[in-house]
Specification:
- This protein starts with 6 loop residues before the first strand and ends in a 5-residue tail after the last strand.
- α1 (78-92) packs parallel to α2, α2 packs across α3 and α5 runs antiparallel to α6 (241-260).
- The protein is of the alpha+beta class.
- It has helices at residues 78-92, 116-131, 138-146, 204-214, 221-237, 241-260, 271-285, 313-321; strands at 7-11, 14-18, 36-40, 47-54, 61-64, 67-69, 99-106, 160-163, 176-180, 188-194, 295-298, 304-309, 328-333, 339-340, 348-349, 354-355.
- A six-stranded mixed sheet has the order 6-5-7-4-1-14. Strands 2-3-8-9 form a four-stranded antiparallel sheet. A four-stranded antiparallel sheet has the order 11-12-10-13.
- It is globular and about 65 Å long.
- The protein has one domain (7-355): Ribosomal Protein S5, domain 2, CATH 3.30.230.
- The structure holds ligand 2P0.
- Ligand 2P0 is lined by residues 16, 19-21, 30, 36, 115, 117, 149-151, 204-205, 208, 299-300.
Amino acid sequence: MVETQVVTGIATPNIALIKYWGKRDYTGLNTPNNSSISITLDETVKTTTSVVFSNKIKKDTVFINGIKEDITNKKASEKTVYMKNILNKMRSYSNIKENALIVSENNFPSGAGIASSASGAAALVFALNKALELKITAKELSIMARQISGSACRSIFGGIVKWNKGIREDGLDSYSEQIFPESHWKELVDIIAIVDSGKKKISSSIGHEATVKTSTLYKERPAFAEKGVICVENAIKNKDLDLLAKTIMKDSNNMHATMLDTWPPIMYLNDSSKEIIYKLHELNDSQSNGKYIAGYTFDAGPNAHIITIDKHRETIRKMLKEISGVKNIIESHIGNGPRIANEKETLIDIKNLSPVKKNS
Ligand code: 2P0
């Protein structure tokens, strides 16, 4: 890098159709007990991350959603430490050794039922790869992103993505790959029903570990999820919405059953989530041809992701509007993965080496 330049990466969250819950490693590798499949969302929901390296920056500085995070602080959160480790690792591969300014923002509220850690980590490693002139492959970026937050390794790709669990202790065979491009099934849509925009009481990281340690039911889960991965892959290949809907609902229910079986129990679903589950089963069971038209899936929170195709959007929206606990609805189709943004999208004021001021 001849002169200081700002690089901006944009990445979007992903929603797992077959879930990742439970790790083999808790030291920061985030290697999972089972493979998983997800859809990467479009830019309706996205994280934008700008980075710059300069000898005018006194120490590595990070702003997330307008708040300065001290990544050099010894009391920093686990995810912040993982982020610092990846920044240092990627910088060690580069000729660029200066300190970094990183500014990251989500265009969706943190309580929107969408995992911002996945898009955040993916946007960061994507931007760092370019800013540090590394030319690291997407597979390796997936491994880097996984070490900040497990599910982030799937947001490195667009379309339908599979995270192969891998078996190696060093995690080098645990990464994601695109199995179908976004163009394969364009009509597929995630209708997100927000029933609670508050922060979750138990973080995913704590939940993963507690479930593996204490749930008896969990012993069955990895094998069940692996079968689900094959089933979802076939359902998507054949655009079989009935099979897709049934498989993802069973997987979500299975994961939440292991959470409830954790000691002390973990319950992410609330009464409105349960009402959505009952209403969607009623709607599916009332179809005259016996085929399901949509499936729900819930992450580590009460907000529903209803996976369907455009043809049934209005029917689903009508169903959701009749549920009083549904506060907001967000819709996202399949996206095409991370990209380097243009100058207009930058979040860094290069003259002052600071975050750009809003409305300026
Ligand atoms: C998933 N979740 O597959 C599952 C479904 C939540 C339920 O991945 O500790 O934030 O950073 O590896 O990735 C949430 O877990 O956990 C998650 P860490 P992460 O999307």
